[in-house]
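Standup notes
- DV: blocked on the single-chain target, sequence here:
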Amino acid sequence: MKPQHLLQLIFLFSISSLSAQIITSPNGGEQWAAGSTQNISWNVSTISSISTQYSLLYSIDKGYTWVNIASVSGGSGTYSWTVPNQLSSKCLVKISESKSVFDQSNSLFSITSSATAINNNESAVLSINVYPNPATDFVSIVNNDPSNVISAVTIYDVLGNVAAQFNADQLMENNMRIDVKDLAMGTYSVMLATSSSIICKKIVIVK
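- DV (later): unblocked, structure below
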């Protein structure tokens, strides 16, 4: 083998070693709440001599499109990221230098509703009904468990943005009836804060 060919192989081997894992968090399986602050962490110490600046980006569609987060320095580090209100279970984070992608999350993570605790207990969920569904002008809330008092209701759109909020006084004044006629057509998450948990219901608004 000619010396120049050997040098080329060594160079290619060196470049290929840059693809080793460098994003350490999120690296798959995490559930980060929209609006929360989370640390993105990475380790690029093995390539810090090649570039001193890298781009952090995120995707909510399995990497088909990417949105810039920030420019960061080489070497191990963390970035405090305010998670966007874009609910998705198909999220990735990557770190890159110009046209070369160095690494991305090993698998998908999720951006979830900003509600911090959702009760998945079947009896608790079934004790509260939201109807009609689909709805046009209003929905009513029926709570069959008086011991689990509803203190607030927040409605989120599919992007995780707050579409409407109601406190306990407003709910009582309207006999647990919520006006939704100003909401656009679509699917919404209704988060009901109770004395023991947060319960999630889905509603569809039609016109």
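- Follow-up: The longest strand covers residues 88-97.
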